[in-house]
Design a protein that fits this description.
- The chain is of the alpha+beta class.
- Among the domains are: 125 residues, Ubiquitin Conjugating Enzyme; 33 residues.
- Helices cover 60% and strands 13% of the residues.
- The protein is built from seven helices and four strands.
- The protein has a four-stranded antiparallel sheet with strand order 1-2-3-4.
- A hairpin with a 2-residue loop joins strand 1 and strand 2.
- The longest helix is centred in the middle third of the chain and has 43 residues.
- 13% of the residues are buried.
- This is RWD domain-containing protein 1.
- It comes from Hydra vulgaris.
- It holds the Pfam family RWD.
């Protein structure tokens, strides 16, 4: 009986798989056979700088005529590293391998092929990580160079700087002048106290101009000075 031969082959293969993948295999159904095998790829035990681990589940559905007919294969429960593109690639890869192995038990072969494929993906991921690391390092180097050298001087940014600099200098100069004028500015009384000769010079100037001066306006000046000194 051909069906019984297929069933016997399936039973024997499942028994062997349960022994090989004692922790990774989960039987969902036995008639027909539907089961899951957890598959992992990792470079954690290597000296690689970038450690990557990928995990997936392979679901196999046996049809009555397996292994003369390929099992249904589904890639599920994938880790984040498995992009949709990688999942589709692995799915197509395993289906092709199944067609190549028709007529013989093939699950162990397909799982082994899947593990090898995951290691290939890890190499791709490592390259992506290194490329990103190099990109970040190059960008940091560029920023450091700009910081070290400063902004290149052009006529445009020099003129902008010059205008700003001149305005700042004008404001500073104005403030200094106002401060000096404030410090130097004296009241009339202070001027008389500092230099009484200013009075005489002003009187002489007025006389030279033919202006009549009432000198009595200044007669009490000495008294004022004495009172101030007290």
């Amino acid at each position: 009986n051909l069906f019984m031969d297929h069933q016997d082959e399936q039973d024997i293969e499942i028994e062997a798989l349960e022994s090989i993948y004692s922790e990774e295999l989960e039987i969902i159904s036995r008639k027909p056979y539907v089961f899951l095998i957890r598959v992992k790829g990792s470079n954690a035990d290597t000296r690689d700088e970038h450690k990557v681990t990928i995990s997936i589940q392979l679901q196999f559905n046996f049809v009555e005529t397996y292994p003369e007919t390929a099992p249904l294969i589904q890639v599920t429960n994938c880790s984040d590293e498995m992009t949709e593109e990688r999942i589709n690639s692995l799915q197509a890869f395993l289906e092709k391998k199944a067609e190549e192995n028709l007529g013989a038990v093939m699950i162990f072969t397909l799982v082994s092929e899947a593990q090898e494929r995951l290691l290939d993906f890890i190499q791709d991921i490592k390259k992506d990580i290194q490329l990103e690391k190099d990109r970040i390092a190059l960008e940091q180097e560029r920023l450091d160079e700009i910081k070290y050298k400063g902004t290149p001087v052009t006529m445009e940014n020099f003129l902008a700087w010059k205008i700003q600099f001149d305005e700042e200098m004008r404001i500073i100069g104005k403030r200094k002048t106002e401060l000096l004028e404030k410090n130097r500015k004296l009241t009339g009384k202070q001027l008389f106290e500092r230099d009484s000769s200013l009075i005489d010079s002003d009187i002489l100037f007025i006389n030279d101009q033919g202006i009549k001066v009432d000198e009595s306006l200044f007669q009490d000046l000495d008294d004022l000075e004495l009172e101030d000194e007290d």
